[in-house]
Structures are given as structure tokens and as C-alpha cells.
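A further point concerns the way the authors explain their paired sequence and structure data. Since the whole study asks how a given chain folds, the encoding of that fold should be made plain. A single example would do more here than another paragraph of explanation. An entry of this sort, consisting of the sequence and the corresponding C-alpha cells, reads as follows:

_____
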Amino acid sequence: MDRDNWQAAWIWVNEGGDENNVYVETRKRFDLTSLPTRATLRISANQAYKVYVNGHPIGRGPAPADLAWMSYDTYSIVEHLHAGANVVAILAHNFGREQIVTEQLQGPGGAICQIDLFDTAEDAAAPTRSIASGADWPCRRSPRWQSKASRLHLWGGYREIVDLQAEDGWERADYDDSDWPTAVVVARAEQPDGPWPRLLPREIPLLRETLVQPVAVVAAEAYLGRLERPEAVLRDDAGGGAVVLDASVPGSLPQITYDFGAEVVGFPEVELEADEGGVVQMFYGESLELLLTDTFLLRKGRNKLSPFGRRAFRYLRIAAMATPAELRLQRLDVRFVHYPYEGEPSFRCSDDKLNRIWETGRYTTVVNSQHHFEDCPHREAALWVADAVVMAKVAYQTYRNPEIVRKSLLQSARIQNDDGSIPGTGPLRNPFLLPDFCAFWLLGAWEYYSYSGDARFLREIWPHAVRLADWFERQEDESGLFARADRDGWWGFIDWSDDI
């Protein structure tokens, strides 16, 4: 939809300061006398959201993008509406102003949402009613997430400390928000002088979500506490029952380390019963060196534990502490997310090593195919140009719908520097320049066009390619070679070969 169809504004919690690691909850009730024929919800946030309609989780996003090219998602929600009172509820997060190595996660906090209701099924029809985010939306800081938490690492976000005792049903229509403060408007939609002057519709399909269970128990240690049936949540366990963790003895720390069999990217989900509350920590690692953690303060009764932020790991440890009574863990999954490639590619030959190499390449590409190509989802989840070009080659040989290649190349072009060079990483504008990555972008653009025949793509990137070629020409020395590729803080990645 074009700018004239946006009635919504970017909103945030109404308080001053530049505090880091802020979680915000905002919601809006609306009444329906009858159900519409169609209902769409458009939403974006800086930097992340999870949206509910009448308590039903609808989706999470958006695709990371430069602040000048923000992406929004669109959902059909008519099946979640009913006559009477309805509510849209948004949990949003902003990283803040702390330093990140690649300078991703920039900009102020903001969320924008618009529900359009239609009485006709015709796509071209104007909505009969819109519910648009604005200064009248109740908005508060989430009481569940503590903002004072340590960083996961210098490349990314924060550990999460989540107080499940503060859950109050805020996402439901029957919740009373009359004592909430109202939001402050940060900017109008596509305000030219605002933090987010453009809103682009999502350029690839929504990510695919699959529930994945652990395949093995690596270690189970009672550490003065009590453990029972650690294997009860494994994928192939048919025995039923629940895992029991009892940390009621002071100083005890029962813990279980699970193996998911391969790297997974997504959102761990744990369901457990706690008769008297307690604390559970999740530890994550690509190896058994589990350095990343999230902490959950349990309430009495049923608890669902899941971090807001995405995690990437193979091994996950569940540790219980300070539990007045035993915990009964009924479910442990990961909501594995990735780009929805089409088809089921396969390769088999008489050489098992080649078979394993092929499958490793295919699966690695799937894991790294998120909203854009990533080089390492466990770290900063950035778009590194050369890595994207390499993974594109695998995608061409295995799957039929590599629109993610197109999007990744366009996102790099959108942050092209004034001198014509292209940053080595994205999708947000940054000062990191790797001259060989600039060349990789040119090669990647040509390979995508050769594969797809996408003339529209070629027309769109051609001015960027010309400016980049001119930049390369200006870097030549008298011998025709690229002069001093490591000057001004540039990286010559090709020179790292001896160290990789």
C-alpha cells in the first residue's frame, strides 16, 4: 500500500531517557458489530515485535532493514476476529544505544500497526474501517522483562531475565488497561524527516516455523538436587510422563544438557508445572561450551518459558535453582525458523563423504537463510556480502525459489556509500568497507541475473553497479592494481586466507 493508505503512526512508551534494552507492550481494543469479509494487519517495529489478536499469536518480525528502508509485515487476521470486543496487542523491543561491533540494531524504539477491515473481497477496494496506532493507544513498559541485563556478546543483544509472575493477560480482549499510560507518537508513517522515512512491504515470504525436539541427553547432573526421567522430552521417547527437577535443597542445581542433533535457529519453548515457583535458566551453545543464558522467574502453576529474542545453538541446558518444590517439565521444543525454500532436494552417490559434504552445505544454507542470508545466526545475524554470494550458489543448485538472493543483494545496494562503494555488511548502513566484498556484490548480482533472468532486478541494481564500477576504477594505482586495500580502516578479507 502507498503512503496515502497509512493512517498509523510510529509510537513508543511515553517516558524520557535513552535507556537500553526496552520492552514495550501496547494494545488497542475495538468493537465489531459484524465480521468483515477481509481483515489485514500491517506492522513493523524497531527493532522487533510479536503481535497478538484476541490473545492469538499472529507473527513476529520484522525483517531487519536499514532505518531508511524499513520493512513491514502483513497478516490476514479475519479468522481471529469476532463480533463484540476485540484487541490487537504488541510486544516490542528496542536494543538501545550500546555499541555493537558491526553497528547493527540502530535507532530509537518504535512500533507501527494498522488493521484494515473490508466489507468486500475485492483487493482494490478501500477499507471500510481502519484501526491505526497513535497517541490514544495504551502503552507501558513490560513488567516481565528486566532491562538491566548483561549483553549476550558484543555482536548482539542482551540476555533475558523474565519474570513470569508478572504475567497478567494483557494480550486478551477482556483485560482492563484503563490505568495504562498512553503512547507517545515518535513519527508519522513515512515521515520524510522522521527516523523511518520509508515503509517497504515484505520482500520475501514469512519464515517457515517447525517444532523440533532434542534427540539425546548429553549430561544429567543432580548437583545436590533431584532429577527424574531426563529423556522424557526427547523426540523419540514414547514413555510419557514428565522430567522432574527438584532444587529444594539449598545450594542444589539440578541440570540437564540436551542435544538437538544439529544447529537450530529459533525460539526455545519449555512448558512446566511449578507448585511453588522457583528459577530456571537456559544455557545455549554451538558446542558444549554453553556461554549464552536466559533466566526465568517462575510463578506457581503452569509456566511457558520462551525468550523473546531468537537463539541459535545445538546444545541447550535446563538448570533449576531455588525451587521450593519439584518442577515437572512436560515439553521442550525449538520453534525452528528459516526461509521457506520449496522442494526437497537430494543428492546421492557412491562416495559417502561427498554425500555428507552435500548435505552439510544444504543444511548450512537453510540455517543461515533467515530474513536475509546470515553468516552466523548465533552472533550478530548480519548480512555479509561475500557470505551471501557463496550461499546463493548453494541455493541455485538445491532449491527453486531463491528470492532471498534478490532481497539480500538489494539490501546491500540500498546502503551504498556516497562514493559508490558498498559496505561489507548490512542490512543497516555502517562504515565497514571490505573492497573484495564490493567485488563479490558485483559477481553475485550478475550470477543472480544469469540464474533468474530477472530483468526488473537488473534495471533496479544497474545504477548501483555503475557507481561501484566507477569507484573501483578510481582505486587503481599506476600499475592498474587496487591501491592500499587496508587504508582508512578498510579490511582486505582476502588477505586473511592464511589465518582461516
Summary: The mean pLDDT is 94. The two ends are 46 Å apart (CA to CA). The chain is about 15% helix and 35% strand.
